[in-house]
Amino acid sequence: MTTLRTAVVGVGYLGRFHAEKLASMPGVRLVAVADTNLERAQAIASTHGCEAHADHRTLLGAVDAACVVVPTEMHHAVAGDFLRARAHVLVEKPIARTLAEADDLVALARAQGRVLQVGHLQRFNPAFRALERSIGRPIFIETERLAPFKQRGVDVDVVLDLMIHDLDLVLSMTKSDPTSISACGASVMTDSIDLANARLEFADGCVANLSASRASQGAVRKLRAFHADGYLSADLQAGRLRLVKRGAAPGDMEQEEVAFDERDELRAEIEAFVSAISGRGPALVSGDDGRRALALALDIGRLVRERAARFAAAAQEPAR
Fold first, then answer.
1. Domain boundaries in the chain?
2. pLDDT tens, residue by residue, 37-89
3. Exposed, middle or buried: residue 112 (CB in 10 Å: 0-12, 13-18, 19+)?
4. 94: exposed, middle or buried (C-beta count within 10 Å: 0-12, 13-18, 19+)?
């Protein structure tokens, strides 16, 4: 079996965990880590016995696959460099800043015959995976994703930072694009959107209501999906799933709760990436999936900003 030569570009808070997982996987060799902060790269490299680079371009042609964990504005440039060098790429979410950049990466991967996987980590949450297997056709989906404010991630608004996780989950469950979108939100901690709510309607009648905030007191990650015979409630933060089904008699409900104590979503994500490279199946979260989630997130962000601009303009009008 050929050893897969890998690298991680960007070894900040999240990238260092990518390096840790790759370094521990059978059949995989972590060749190098790269970071514009060479001192940080050297510290991570010394832990895993690999090379440290300040410029990712020195690794082009030297690795078979790369995890790209850099700020969003660099996704297109860095992931594109590796794809052109015929390396497989796992790029963190969102796939890129713009749809044009996302389309370019998807086209590059297709032209080069390489795997392009997008880091929508919640697809690998065991509570969500169990919910998705059980739901059938959802008729109503509700998600709530709240987090305390952190400086990390403020290069994008809360829709691209947090809500995009749930947008990807909803798109995965409905397997279609919404026919109607409405959204509202506000800036609280930054000059960008810090809290947002979106309502999506689909052609089959399913409705999804999503809320996200990065100005909360605590972390909440919940998803509820209703179908004709009951509903499923997933606590993605705690790794629990509650299944509620209609009983034999009117008004009776049967309940079951499952806890997923053994959880390592990042390892599962990277294992899926390696599996796709090995030809054992398609990428679970493909470049096309990442592009769909990005398109929806950008639409929601635009609607929030347009609504805020309308209210700001109305507030400036003189009273009659």
1. 4-114, 123-263
2. 999 999 999 999 999 999 999 999 999 999 999 999 999 999 999 999 999 99
3. middle
4. buried
pTM above 0.85, yes or no: yes
Is 1.10.1060.10 the CATH classification of the domain at 123-263? no
- What DSSP assignment string belongs to 294-317? HHHHHHHHHHHHHHHHHHHHHHHS
Each residue's pLDDT tens digit, 171-198: 999 988 899 999 999 988 888 899 999 9
First-last CA distance in the chain = 78
Phi-psi region of 49 (alpha: psi -120 to 50; beta: other; left: phi over 0): left
Lookup: tokens for 80: 């594109």
3-state helix, strand and coil shares in percent for the chain, rounded to the nearest 5: 40, 25, 35
**Contact (Cβ atoms closer than 8 angstroms) between residue 121 and residue 162:** no
CATH for 4-114, options being 3.40.50.970, 3.40.50.720, 3.40.50.1820, 3.40.30.10: 3.40.50.720
d(CA 162, CA 151) in angstroms, rounded, equals 14
Q: How far is C-alpha 44 from the chain's CA centre?
A: 24
